[in-house]
Amino acid sequence: MQGDNQIQFNKEAGDRVSARYERLHGEIFNSIEQQRLRDALSVAKSSVKTGAELLKALDYGCGSGNLTRFLIELGIYTVSADISEGFLTLIESRFRQTGLSEGLLINGKDLSNVPDGSLDLTASYSVLHHVPDYLHVVREM
Q1: FRET label pair with 99: which of 1, 6, 84, 91, CA 20 to 30 Å apart?
Q2: pLDDT tens across 71-104, in order?
């Protein structure tokens, strides 16, 4: 499966499993991996030298908010981006009350709806293998 067909398949799969994604992926949602992610994002935050008073991050392919949660805990305003409206609905219900979260529907091909220079940090976890031309997306990041 390639290109647009792959993107549509991924969108439909995300919408279908969004409510139970974390239960399906114990290999990701366990205390050891979660601490590793928390620590890695903390190091990433300390490496940002943009001078922004409030850092702004993109969680590309946010899924159920695995990275979004840690970015918000670090006090970073987070744009959680996904092709799945099901995941974005979940993100909104989980994090809207923080004041540090917004969702962004992306097309799975590029970051054309993210203004250049608008972010201090981009994070992605367990998603690039789903992107047909992930090298293009990484270059844009």
Answers
A1: 84
A2: 999 999 999 999 999 999 999 999 999 999 999 9
Can you tell me whether residue 82 is helix, strand or coil? strand
Strand partners, 104: 81
Q: List the helix and strand counts (H, then E) for the chain.
A: 6, 4
How far, in Å, CA of 9 to CA of 45, rounded?
33
How far is Cα 67 from Cα 61, in angstroms, rounded to an integer?
A: 10
φ, ψ of residue 62 in degrees (nearest 5): -60, -25
Instruction: Check if the beta carbon of residue 59 is closer than 8 Å to that of residue 68.
Output: yes
Average per-residue pLDDT for the chain:
95
Cβ of 76: how many Cβ atoms within 10 Å? 23
